[in-house]
């Protein structure tokens, strides 16, 4: 009995981690989008008489240095970060997977050509690529999304190509080809079930990386500009007031921490080792 309990412990811990991550992420999504449903304060409205006021029963998160509602600004910044991260991951994942399967399937010149493009982009640091795009079209969240997508797709392409190559050379796929089944069937029946778990886990890690990148670029005043609510930008705006209102500075930091923690918990890998008593 004890050995059975210990054998189930890793799977139980893995399930609890995923449940906790899903709970945290769901709470953040509700906090971000609930004001759009029930109405809330304007994140851009200023009232200097409320400047740096601490949390209270009337304003649970207090106000920033310009008297703007911290709750409204955090919710708007969350919507921006989550939306850009999700869009970047989906936009990077779809072409990355398709190109990876194509390179693994056809091989030869096609594999070398796509691989050369990905390696040439890898030679350029991802942050530098995003900085170049945001310098060309400043104050445009679309450039952040485009730059992060251009960085992320390479990872999905390389992982998909490595995973799909042995699958496409397997006897099961060869039998499907001989029976006349096309590429769509082979992708749905043989390839995707084998690689989906790893790629979805990689997508969660990619979303966390995108959120960190957006916040880092906002912290150095690149990307979106004031007064647009963005977590990194909020941190740099509130940094001079950390002694007067530490609660205001800690709030965007805590939100970033919770978002990344939730995604890391969702993407966590189950321990395949066996524990012994």
From TrEMBL:
It is a multi-pass membrane protein. It is found in: Cell membrane. The keyword Transmembrane applies. The keyword Protein transport applies. The chain crosses the membrane at residues 20-41, 80-105, 117-136, 142-159, 198-224, 248-267. It comes from the Bacteria. Residues 78-267 form the ABC transmembrane type-1 domain. InterPro entries: BP-dependent_transpt_permease, MetI-like, MetI-like_sf. Keywords: Cell membrane, Membrane, Peptide transport, Protein transport, Transmembrane, Transmembrane helix, Transport. It holds the Pfam family BPD_transp_1. Belongs to the binding-protein-dependent transport system permease family. PANTHER family: D,D-DIPEPTIDE TRANSPORT SYSTEM PERMEASE PROTEIN DDPC-RELATED, OLIGOPEPTIDE TRANSPORT SYSTEM PERMEASE PROTEIN APPC. This is ABC transporter permease. It comes from Rhizobium lemnae.
